[in-house]
């Protein structure tokens, strides 16, 4: 499957909100449901990759 690349206008506050949501989700991984953990791990990795690809600072909680 090819990866779709797009450009978005995102404010610094929106990037921080995305990072905080990923931090909160990351903190919940391992607290119960295996399906949740798998999906959340994948989604957090996608956020981390997006930050790195755009030369943005990493999340606080890794």
Largest sheet: none
- How would you sum up the global shape? globular
Strand content: under 5%
Mean pLDDT: 91
Describe the protein in words:
- The protein contains two helices and no strands.
- It is mostly helical and 62 residues long.
- The chain has a domain at 12-27 and 34-53.
- The longest helix is centred in the last third of the chain and has 20 residues, at 34-53.
- The termini are far apart.
- The mean pLDDT is 91.
- Helix 1 (12-28) packs antiparallel against helix 2 (34-53).
- It is globular and about 35 Å long.
Task: State the main characteristics.
globular, 62 residues, mainly alpha
Short recap of the structure:
Helices cover 60% and strands 0% of the residues.
Topology:
Layout: H1 12-28, H2 34-53
Helix pairs in contact: 1-2
